């Protein structure tokens, strides 16, 4: 089985803080990580490899520094890593990103594409299904378990209040939730190997035979018009009192608002 | 692309086992507001099987001017390709300028697939929608970077302008319907090739569990409550007020409450009448999921906790002492 796992390097948004004076994001010192859902995608592929035998290619689109995320994936046990990087991709929205990734995927042999459900910086959950559409592949998103059958996969998809077991023929695309597994750590030997030079292949727009007018800012249907940091709601009164007095203050407030 | 050829707002309705979901009604209410600014109609397309006049009536009551439905056994339950194909055909024929979809697990599977097929833009999980005055473009505002920033997105040169909205973000509205109900049937041309996945079984979760999105009062636990055992104290308070217990990501990760009751960026968006934040520090990801609550009461030992910046009333105290005291005080009130 040949598996492609699409991964994104993201700032760890739980570490992002806001500068209270300027109201801007403090990005300095914020660590970059493999997007958590994507990391579970790598782990899911590694489990399939252990169980059924597989070749795993990691694919990431991003700036030079995204190489680190790919190296980490190699050190977890992936077989091949490709960094798709070109100025032509700059400013891409999900549409322009997914079409570029689809062009790259056309150059790779695969049975299954695994994406994480969504990235913690954008939270859109769009790129996976859009890749599947560009490649005319069947898809199942929100997957929490994968088993291989002969020419198909049996997956469990979760909805808000129910779940389904689904059979999907390969080639196909699935997106996984981070709940699917607990990603393993890198092994020391593999970290050493992964850091050796030229372990990550570099592809630019020529490598994927893509017309630059199809991607990047200009080919993106959506545009960011305005960015603002959220102002805190006008803070109410805060009281430092004992439990009994605090309880009374709350009861008063609930009465004032006709809750009780 | 001739942008002017696209007119009107289309809401993609969502039904599960024949029940129209709340998110659909909420979108219709918002669509009606936007339609007034654009001077256009609101249409709804409800896909399923065995849909009838009752479905039509309730859609009209919540703001749909034009009602479209499919009745096709292959569309009874959601499946990506048959739904994408049916909606794409409908959009290409009817050319709405705006398409709104609920950001549920179904909508978030469907919407990106649709946008890629229609070659247009899609903005996910919008928390506010408006019309830009001079351009008449849809202004789609959504949180990003874990809720740290709000980005306003436009889709100026492609149509339709597509957005998804999480259930609970907008409020449903009811309207007086004066015109007679007319249901337009939409034919689906689903072939064998479109049925490209096989649903082996569907398992429904126990319905006893109550949905925190529908609760009027939420008593929400944070790491500050200290242990799983202390959840019972919150349950007593919730019971006293007729509410439910929810929690932050930290307590879900700790296994103190179940994931479906998680509030925040990676959980649910709630807007109850009263939200008790008990021992919740107030990470931005959490605030993003509850800041629209009418009344926010925060209880935390740490006077510097960011939750106090977002609360209407803050009490700096030990939550495990305060909650039992509050329950007592409430009981006194009811026995007065």
Account of the 3D structure:
The complex is a heterodimer of chains A (260) and B (336). Chain A has helices spanning 36-52, 67-76, 94-106, 127-134, 188-195, 243-256, and strands spanning 2-6, 9-11, 17-18, 25-26, 32-34, 55-61, 80-84, 112-116, 139-148, 152-158, 162-169, 172-176, 200-203, 223-229, 237-240. Chain A has 260 residues and is an alpha/beta fold. Chain A has one domain (2-219): Rossmann fold. Chain B has 336 residues and is α/β, with parallel strands linked by helices. Chain B folds into two domains: 3-194, Rossmann fold, CATH 3.40.50; 212-334, TPP-binding domain (Rossmann fold, 3-Layer(aba) Sandwich), CATH 3.40.50. Chain B is built from eight helices and 18 strands. Chain B has a seven-stranded parallel β-sheet with strand order 7-11-6-1-4-5-12, with helices on both faces. In chain B, strands 15-14-16-17-18 form a five-stranded parallel β-sheet. A three-stranded antiparallel β-sheet of chain B has the order 8-9-10. Classes of the chains: A alpha/beta (260), B alpha/beta (336). Chains A and B meet through helix 3, helix 4, strand 9, strand 11 and strand 14 of A and helix 3, helix 4, strand 7, strand 9 and strand 10 of B.
């Amino acid at each position: 089985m040949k598996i492609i796992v699409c991964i994104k390097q993201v700032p760890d948004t739980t570490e992002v803080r806001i500068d209270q004076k300027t109201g801007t994001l403090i990005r300095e010192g914020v660590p970059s990580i493999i997007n958590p859902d994507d990391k579970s995608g790598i782990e899911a592929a590694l489990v399939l490899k252990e169980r059924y035998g597989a070749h795993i290619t990691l694919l990431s689109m991003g700036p030079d520094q995204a190489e680190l995320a790919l190296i980490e994936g190699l050190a977890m046990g992936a077989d091949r890593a490709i960094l798709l990087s070109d100025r032509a991709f700059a400013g891409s929205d999900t549409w322009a990103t997914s079409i570029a990734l689809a062009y790259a995927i056309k150059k790779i042999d695969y049975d299954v594409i695994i994406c994480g459900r969504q990235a913690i910086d954008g939270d859109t959950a769009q790129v996976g299904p859009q890749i599947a559409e560009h490649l005319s592949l069947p898809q199942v998103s929100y997957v929490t378990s994968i088993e291989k059958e002969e020419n198909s996969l049996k997956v469990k998809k979760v909805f808000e209040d129910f779940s389904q077991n689904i059979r999907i023929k390969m080639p196909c695309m699935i997106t996984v939730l981070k709940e699917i597994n607990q990603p393993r750590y890198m092994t020391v030997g593999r970290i050493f190997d992964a850091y050796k030079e030229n372990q990550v292949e570099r592809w630019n727009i020529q490598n994927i035979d893509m017309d630059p007018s199809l991607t990047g800012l200009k080919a993106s249907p959506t545009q960011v018009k305005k960015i603002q940091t959220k102002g805190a709601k006008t803070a109410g009164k805060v009281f430092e009192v004992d439990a009994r007095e605090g309880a009374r203050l709350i009861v008063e407030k609930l009465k004032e608002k006709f809750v009780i | 692309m001739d942008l002017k050829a696209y007119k009107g707002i289309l809401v993609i309705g969502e039904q599960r086992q024949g029940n129209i979901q709340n998110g659909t009604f909420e979108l219709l209410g918002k669509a009606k507001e936007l339609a007034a600014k654009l001077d256009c109609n609101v249409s709804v397309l409800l896909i399923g099987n065995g849909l009838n006049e009752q479905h039509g009536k309730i859609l009209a009551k919540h703001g749909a001017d034009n009602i479209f439905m499919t009745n096709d056994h292959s569309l009874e339950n959601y499946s990506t390709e048959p739904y994408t194909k049916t909606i794409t055909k409908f959009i290409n024929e009817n050319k709405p300028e705006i398409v709104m979809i609920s950001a549920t697990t179904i909508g978030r599977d469907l919407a990106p697939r649709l946008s890629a097929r229609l070659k247009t833009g899609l903005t996910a999980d919008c928390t506010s929608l408006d019309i830009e005055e001079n351009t008449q473009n849809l202004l789609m505002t959504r949180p990003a970077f874990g809720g740290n920033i709000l980005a306003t997105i436009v889709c100026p040169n492609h149509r339709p302008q597509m957005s998804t909205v999480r259930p609970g973000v907008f409020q449903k509205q009811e309207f007086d319907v004066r015109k007679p109900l007319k249901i337009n049937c939409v034919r689906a041309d689903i072939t064998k090739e479109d049925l490209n996945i096989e649903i082996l079984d569907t398992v429904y979760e126990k319905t006893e569990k109550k949905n925190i999105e529908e609760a009027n009062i939420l008593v929400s636990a944070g790491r500050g409550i200290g242990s799983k055992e202390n959840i019972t104290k919150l349950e007593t308070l919730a019971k006293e007020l007729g509410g439910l217990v929810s929690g932050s990501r930290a307590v879900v990760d700790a296994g103190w409450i179940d994931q479906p009751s998680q509030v925040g960026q990676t959980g649910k968006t709630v807007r109850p009448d009263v939200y008790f934040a008990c021992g919740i520090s107030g990470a931005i990801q959490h605030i993003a999921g509850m800041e629209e609550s009418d009344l926010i009461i925060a209880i935390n030992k740490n006077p510097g906790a960011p939750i106090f910046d977002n609360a209407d009333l803050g009490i700096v105290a030990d939550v495990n002492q305060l909650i039992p005291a509050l329950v007592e005080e409430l009981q006194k009130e009811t026995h007065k």
